[in-house]
Amino acid sequence: MADKELTIFVVDLASPKNVCNYVLNAIAGKLLKGLKTDLVSVVLFHSQTTSHSSASSGKFKGINVLLDFEQPSYIQLQRLYRILTLDSEVCEVTPETSDLVQSVLFSSTLLAPTKGKVFTRNIVLATDVASVINTGSVEKIESVPKFLQGLPVNMYAIVHGLKDNNATEVRLMASHFKTSQVMSDIEADEVVAHHPPVKKTRPVSLFRGDLRLGANYSRVLTDPSYDADRDNSCVSFKVDVYPATKSEANSLGIHEYLVENGSVVKLDRSTKYFVWEKNFQGEKVEDDEAAEVNDKQYDKIPIEHSHITQGFKFSNFDLLALDSDLKQAATLKIQAAFDIMRFLDVDSIPIAYLTSEALLVVPEKDSSFRNITNHNAFCISLIEERKAILARFVKKSEKEIEVGVLYPVQIKDQNLYTHSLVFIRLPFKEDIKVGRFIKLSGQNALKQKDKPSPDLASINNMMENFIEARTIAEPEAKFGANHIINNGKISMKSLDSSKLPLIPKGLLATEFFASDPGANKFSSKLRKLLLSSLNFDEMQNFYDDIKLETRSLDSSETNLFNLHNALAVNSPLKDPEELLKLAVKGIDISKKLAEEIGTAYVRKEDVKKRKITKDQPFQSKGNYGSEEKGYDEVPDFGF
Amino acid sequence: MSFPNLDQNYKQYEVKEGIVFLIELTDSLFKPLATLDDHSQLQEILLCIDELMSDMIVSFYKNGVGIYFYNSEETGSKFPKKSGLTKIFSLNDLNSSNMKTLSNIVRDEADGFKPLTKRYRPRAEPLDNLQTVLRMILREFQQKPQYNRTKLIWFTNNDKPYLNPEAKDSLRTIISDFEDNNIFIEPIFLDSYLDEAQTKRKEFETSLFENIFLNTNFLNRVLRETRHAEEQNSGSDSFDAINKIKTSIARLKEVRRIQISCDLILSDGPGIGGALGCSIKGYTLFDHEKIKASKNVYTEGEALKVVQIDSSSIRSDTQAEVEIERDNDGKQKKIDAVKGLALKYTNKVDELKENESNERVLLLPENVLQDMKSYSFDHVPQFYQNAKDLSQLEVSSEPGQLEEVSFSKVPYLKLLCFRQLNSFQPFFNLKPALFVTADLDDGLGSGNREGGFANSRTTFTSLYQSCVKLKRFAMVFGCAKLNSTPTLYALYPTNTDGSNSGNAVELPDGFLLVSLPWLGEIRSLPEYVLTEQSKYFFEDPARCAPLQLVEAFKKVIGLVGTSEYNPESHSNPVLQYFYKTIKQEALQMDIKDEDQTVEGNDWSSKELLQLKTLFTEDRALGELVLSINSMLDAIGAAEGSKRAAEDSDIQNGKKQKARPLNEADVITLWKNDTWGNVTVAQLREFIKRYDSIKSATKKADMIANISNFLESKQKTK
Fold this sequence. Notes:
The complex is a heterodimer. Chain A contains 16 helices and 20 strands. By secondary structure, chain A is α/β, with parallel strands linked by helices. In chain A, the strands form four sheets. In chain A, strands 7-8-15-18-17-16-14 form a seven-stranded mixed beta barrel. In chain A, α1 runs antiparallel to α2. The C terminus of chain A is likely disordered. Helix content of chain B is 35%, strand content 18%. Chain B has 21 helices and 22 strands. In chain B, strands 8-9-18-22-21-20-17 form a seven-stranded mixed beta barrel. The longest helix of chain B is centred in the last third of the chain and has 35 residues. Chain B is extended. Chains A and B meet through α2, α8, β8, β9 and β10 of A and α1, β9, β10, β11 and β12 of B. Chain A: Its EC number is 3.6.4.12. Chain A: It is an enzyme of class 3 (hydrolase). Chain A: GO terms for molecular function: ATP binding; DNA helicase activity; double-stranded DNA binding; hydrolase activity; telomeric DNA binding. Chain A: It is found in: Chromosome, Telomere; Nucleus.
C-alpha cells in the first residue's frame, strides 16, 4: 500500500504568476498519477474571495480555501489554473487581509484530519519577496510549532526574487518545520523540470531463513525438524532477502479510445477461445496426399472455458496433458533453502556470468546482537580476503534452484556503514548461448586477404589518446574500496520519500545514478499538455487543436537528448558540464581519428543510388539528417 | 515529414534450424576403437545425435533433424532403386517418435540385441553415385521449407568421393546448388587405422574433396583445423575421432541470437558531431533457460488440441465488438483508435450531469505521442557555442573531409565517457549483459536500419584493443532497439587480463553491454535496517565484530577452499528433471528404476553433502566452527543479560505491557476518537479476534478498519 501524503499549497495571489508554475505542475503531476493516497489542499491568500470555515467570524480575510483534503480532480485544477492566470481575483492588500505568516498558520489548522494517522505532511508556500507582511506578524512566527501541534510537517517555499540575504521571515518560518527548503521561482522551475519525485518502493521480503555453511545436509534432505541454527557443528546466519534492483516499465494508465462526434469511448480487449477443426473441405482432401493443406480446410470451433486444461508441448508433434500426477512426477522435491557451497575469488567472476536482478541479503528483522555480529564478522573476513560466495538458493519449495554469487558489500549512509551480501544468479550449462565471433585482439586482427589492411598501430595510438581525453576523473580513493556502495537511494528511508519534485539533498554520491530521462521527458510533456488543455472548455476542442499541430521548435532549447541532459534528471553531478567538457577535450583527436579510419555515415539510399550510376565515383551524402535543417526532426509542441 | 513507426517491433526471426546428418557406411565405421572406449565411430555418432536431440528439445524444439546413410547394402523405400541410400528418419521437426527410434537403435547396439552391423550393412563394392546421393539429400531439404537455417553434417572416412574423374564437374555443380539454397555443408573426415592394433593412422587425403568443394568455402574450416591440430601436436594421434565427433555435434547447439543492431557513436561537438562511430551488433551470451510455459489444451475432442485465442476490441459503452474494416486485399485495417489517459473529473459527483462520466480523457494523438517519445540524440546542440574551451580548439582544427553528423535517430548508443575498469561495480545488475561486436556489414545488412558507419570493424577493433590496454570501460547512453526507452549502459571489454582463465566458458573478443539501473530501479534497504541504525549500522568496520571472530572466519574460508565456477559443467537440475520425466512420458519409456531423490538428480545437493563430509572429516575445520559458535554464544549471552536488565528497568520504571482491549474500550475509543494512547499490538490483538475486521499493518489502517466495522454494525442495527 502506498504511503499517504497531504500537501497544502499556500499561494500568494499578489505575487508574480510564475511562482505558481511549481504549484500547477505539482498538482497536475498528482492528477496524472491519480493516487487515492495523495491528497491536496489549496489555500489562496490576498484573494478577493474569502472562503473558509471561519469566514463568517471575519478572521483571516482574503483567504480562499479552494481545496480541502481532496484528491486532485480535473475541474478543480482548471478552476485553480484560471484563478492563477487571471488578475481579477487579486484583492487590494490592506493590513486587514491575511499575510503569508497568517496564511501559513491558518493552513496548519487544515492538517487536523491527519492527526493520529500515518501521513507525510507538506506545506508548499508560493509567494513574492516583496509580499507585504502585516505589523505584528513577525512575532507570530514563533507560534508556528504551537499550530503544528507536534506533527512532523515539511515546508517548501518558493519565493520570487529570492536572494541570499532577503526573505528572512520566510526563512525564519521554515526553520520551525521538520524539514524545509526555500527556493527561488527560477530554482523551482528547474526542480519541476529535472527533479521528479524520487520514491522509495516499500521493500518486500523474498525469503527469510538461514544462510547455512556446513549444515548437516543429509538431515536437511530427510528431516524437516532439522534446525541449522541449533547445530553447533555448522555456521548459520539468519537473513532476510530483498530485491536490490528491479527493472521498471513505465506504467501510466494509457488506454485506447474511439473518438466519434465529440465523445470518447474506451476500447476494451476481449478474448475468445477456439480450436481448429477440419471442415468438409478438409475431410475431402484428407486422403489425397498431394493436396495442399490450407486455412480454408479448417474451421474455428469456439469452446467453453471449462473444457480447457493445461498441456505441455514437448515437440511440434507431441502434446501432453499436464495433469497433476504428471506435474508432480516432473517436479523435483526441493525445499526452500539458502546454502553456501564454496568460495570464489571476487575478481574471478566474469561479468558476463551475472544474469539476474541483484538481491540484498541482510540480517533478519529483529536480529539478535549475536546474529548481527556473526554477519559483520563474516562479511569483513570475506572483504579482507577478497572472496565471494558460491551459493545455492531455493526461494520457494519445489520451484527453481538458483546458483549464484554472493558479494560482500558495505553500504554507506552519510558516515555510517552496514554490511550486506548481494546475490546475483550465475548461468547453468543450458543457459550458455555463446557463439563464435571474429577475433579482435592481436596486431593482425584486421589482416584480410587481398586487401591492404589499415595501420592498426597508428590508429590505436590515436584511439588511446581519444580514450584518455574522454576518461572522467574519479577520486583515487575509490579504487580498492570497490566493495563500498555509496548511493542515497539504497539507504533511503520512507520518510525521505516524497511525492513532490524537490531538490535532491545529498541523495547520491556518484555521477552515474540519475533518473530515467525518457520517463521524465514523457511526464513533463504530459503535464504541459494537461495544463494547456485547461484553457479549453471541452477536451474535444483541445484534441482538435493539437491533432493538426506542426509547430516547429524555435526556442534555443533542443527537443532531443544530448550530452548535457542525458544524465541531468535527479543528477548529483557536481559539475553538470563535466561530460560536455570531456567531449570538447576530445573533439580534436576524434576528428583526426575519424579521418584516419575513414569513418563516414553511409545511408542505404545512397548505396542504392551508387549502384545505378556505376561509373561515377561514389559520393556519400555523409550523414543522415544532412538535408534536414537544425532541429526540425521532430516538431516540438511548446504548449 | 515522416516519422519512424515507434510501435514497430524490432524484427527478429525465430531460428528454425534443419540439420541433416549424412553418413557414409564403410566397414571401418563399425570397428570398435580403443580411443572411443570400444565404441564404433557410428555408435559414437548416433549417441551424440541422441544427446543433441534431448538437449535441443529443451531450447529449440522447433528445430528439425534427419539421419541418412549412403553406400548401404539395402536401399530404403522412397529412394531410387539400388541407390544405396537409407535413413533412420527423414528431416522433420524434433518429435518423440524419432527420438524413440534413435534411442532404441542406440540401446539395441549397446546391449547387443540388434547390432548396427546387422541393421545398416555397408556395400562391398562402392556405387560411385555421390551425385544421386547429394541430389536426393538436396530434395529432402527442399521439401521442408520451414527451416530458415539449414546444415548438412557429412561424416565419411572414405577419401575418394568419386572414382570416375568425369563425375568431378557435376559434383561441383551440386555442391554449388547446396550453397545457392543456403545449405551449409560441414564435412567431417573421420580417421581410420591401417592395422588391427590401431596404432597406424591412415592419412585422410583431402585433394579429391578439395576438387568438389572448389567453389565454396565449406572446406576451409576443416583444413584450417587440421593444420592447427598438426601444428599443436606435431602430427601425433591425439587429434582423434572422439574429439571430432563430439565437438562437431555439440557445436550444432551453438547459436548466435542477434538482439540488437545499432550504431555506437563516439564523438560529439561542432565540426564532427557523431561522425566517429561504428555499427555494432549485440548477441545473447547467457540467458536463463526455463521450462516452456504450459499451453491451454482442449480435451473434449478425439485428440488433444491446443486452444487458440481470438482477441478483439470491444466498446466499453455498448460491449459491441468493433468491426474491423478490410482493405482491397482483404487485409485487416488498424482500428482508428487514439491513445489517452483518463483523469478524474470531480470529487463532487453531484456536479455531474445525468449519465455524464466522471472522467476526462486526455487524448494523445499520434503526432503528440511521437514528440513525447522521441529519443534522438543531438550531437551538436547550441550550447557548444558557449563552451569556453572550444574557442581555442577551433583554431587547431583544420578543414578536413569530415562531414558533421548532427544527430542520431533511434537505435543508437552514444558514448558519454570512459572510466577505469576497477571502478566498475556489479552490485546493481539488472539482467544478463549482451555481447557486442562489430557489424561486418557496416549497418547496411539489417532491415530496420537506414544506414551505418564505414570501416566499423577497424574502429571497433581499435576501440577494443585500446580499452583492454588502458583498462577502461565506456559509459554509453541510448536506445539499442527501435522500441526501447533510453538506458544507461556500461560497455565493458571481455577478455581483459586475468578475467578469462582456463576453467571458464571461453568468451569471444568484444564488449559486454551491461544495463545500469536508473534511480527508480534501485531498491532501498528494508526500513528496519535504516530506522534501527544504531543496531545495523556502525562507524568503523574494524570495530563492528571481534577480531578473533573475523580471523576464525578467514581460516574457515581457507579450509573450505576456493575454486572457480564453470557453467559448462553444471546443468540446471530442476529443468533436467522436468524434461527427463516428460521425455519418459512422451517416449513411453520404462521408469521403474528411475532415481527420484533430490540428491540423485541435483548436483548442488550432492556438493553440499560433500561439504558436510569435509566439515566432519577435517578436524581443524570442525573445531573452528565449534569455537566460532561458542564465541557467538558468549556474545549472545552477554547481550541477553544486558537486555534483560534493560527490560526490567523499563518494566520497573515505565508502563507495563498494555492490557488487551475489550469491546467496550474500543467503542469508547471510537466514539471519542481517542486512539492516541492505544498501541499497535493492542489493536492487532483485537482485530485478530474478529474475522469480519480486515487486518492491516499500519495503525491508521487498523483504526480505519475497526471504524468501518463498527460503522457497518451500527447501520445494520
